[in-house]
Amino acid sequence: MRPTPFIIGSLLAVISVASAAHDHDHDDHEHEHEHGHEHESLSAHEHGVGSLNLVVDGGEVAIELVSPANNLLGFEHLPASNADKAKVKALQAQLNDADSLFVFPAAADCSVEEVELSSPLFETEDGHEHEHEHSDESAESHADIQAHFHFNCTQEAALDQIQVALFSAFPGTERLLLQAIGPKGQQGGELTATQNLIRF
């Protein structure tokens, strides 16, 4: 079994390929998602759409979710009211409960090893509100949330699929664009509430 750094390195390679494909025209088309473009490619920030990057290496599974905050929270501004702050805390708790977001075959005996969350919206609790309040407004109005999940499965032979339960947890998420590296190589596609199974 290879160590976690290899898995994360592979995941970052997948992410860089996806980013190169999708981020190149964000600056010129910042509000492209509001105008109903028919392009299949994901703009850098599109409400209802996120990306899921996944690497399976033996019994090790690394997953990265990148999503507009609006998909998960219903808003993207820095939380100022107590109600907004409570929603952000509840979201962090929900994302940390990774076993309820990704369902593995019971026979694979998988457990979550680590969860890392990153977003400007999460930093206000550390006293950084004013650093972000006066930063670039477009960055604030298009806040993203990144979540990294690391699982370990003791019975890797039984690890043949993962059900993504994010859609029921976060109804604002309509589609996830998938980039994955698994036992049979690289695969991509689109996940929805009715097609939420990743098979290896």
From TrEMBL:
It comes from the Bacteria. InterPro entries: ZrgA-like. Residues 125-142 have a biased composition (Basic and acidic residues). Residues 1-20 form the signal peptide. This is DUF2796 domain-containing protein. Residues 21-45, 122-142 are annotated as: Disordered. Keywords: Signal.
